[in-house]
Amino acid sequence: MYFFLSNLSLADIGFISTVVPKMIVDIQTHSRVISYVGCLTQMSIFILFGCMDNMLLTVMAYDRFVAICHPLHYPLIMDPRLCYFLLLVSFFVSLLGSQLHNLIVLKLTCFKGVEISNFFCEPSQLLKLACSDTFTNNIVMYFAGAIFGFLPFLVILFSYYKIISSILIVTLSSGKYKAFSTCGSHLAVVCLFYGTCVGVYLSSAVSQYPRKGVWASVMYTVATPMLNPFIYSLRNRDIKRAMWRFLSKTF
Questions:
Q1: Residue 248 belongs to some domain of the structure
Q2: What percentage of the chain has pLDDT greater than the value 90?
Q3: Is residue 217 part of a domain?
Q4: Residue 233 lies in a domain
Q5: Range of the domain at 106
Q6: In terms of CB atoms within 10 Å, which end of the chain has fewer, N or C?
Q7: Residue 205 is assigned to a structural domain of this protein
């Protein structure tokens, strides 16, 4: 779990590093100008680490499934070779997803405007600025989103279905609490990640006022990666004690 958690933290660092520095510069200079190449680069890296987060959360759900449903075989199944293999697969699938979105945008030859109604370059926002018909591009983009987003989410749902089924069989309440505690942090991160992700894409696809989706974008790009370490750290007793000491001194 900690192997995948450390890689999730690295992906979160890369995730926010593509958006937050540019956002700070824009606030300081009161200018939101970005070059075409810079926009494509930001979008490519942003989608890469976003898909990486998604894939790692899926792998971590499988890891929790093996730990709870097959605890005696866990060291044999989740050996270091499989962990590194799953990490490499997650990276190459994420790279494929980012390059596919880049190809969709590169097919656009002209734009009817130069203003993006968000603080970072997003494929759906760029498609709305295209002069030509983008129906095919939209179909491909949503199909790619279904493959790289919805299928991993189905794997996570199936893993938790098997986990909950196994937990309900346990008769001891202490055993149920221990099983739920091992999944609580991961489940909270999954809900936060997918909840904000769905909010961003629904607001950009449905709303006629794209600026209303900026707050969802802030949660998705800034708040969620920032909260992930805190959520996982709440299981650490030392961090809990330090937090309570800090709160008692503050209030």
A1: no
A2: 16
A3: no
A4: no
A5: 2-174
A6: C
A7: no
* Owner of token pair 């962990």: 83
What pTM, to 2 d.p., does this model score?
0.83
- pLDDT tops 90 at residue 62: yes
Contact 8, 73 (CB under 8 A): no
User: Contact 52/228 with Cβ under 8 angstroms?
Assistant: no
AA identity, residue 116: I
Between 172 and 31, name the one with better pLDDT.
31
Are 11 and 52 in contact by the 8 Å Cβ rule? The answer is yes
The DSSP-derived string for the chain is: -HHHHHHHHHHHHHHHHTTHHHHHHHHHHT-----HHHHHHHHHHHHHHHHHHHHHHHHHHHHHHHHHHSGGGHHHHS-HHHHHHHHHHHHHHHHHHHHHHHHHHHT---BS----SSSS--HHHHHHTBSS--HHHHHHHHHHHIIIIIHHHHHHHHHHHHHHHHHHH---HHHHHHHHHHHHHHHHHHHHHHHHHHHHHHHHHH-S-GGGGHHHHHIIIIIHHHHHHHHHHTT-HHHHHHHHHHHHHH-
The DSSP string of 100-113 is HHHHHHHT---BS-
Question: Structural domain tally of the chain?
Answer: 1
In sequence order, the β-bridge partners of residue 130 are 111
The vertex-146 CA angle with 154 and 134, nearest 5°, equals 170
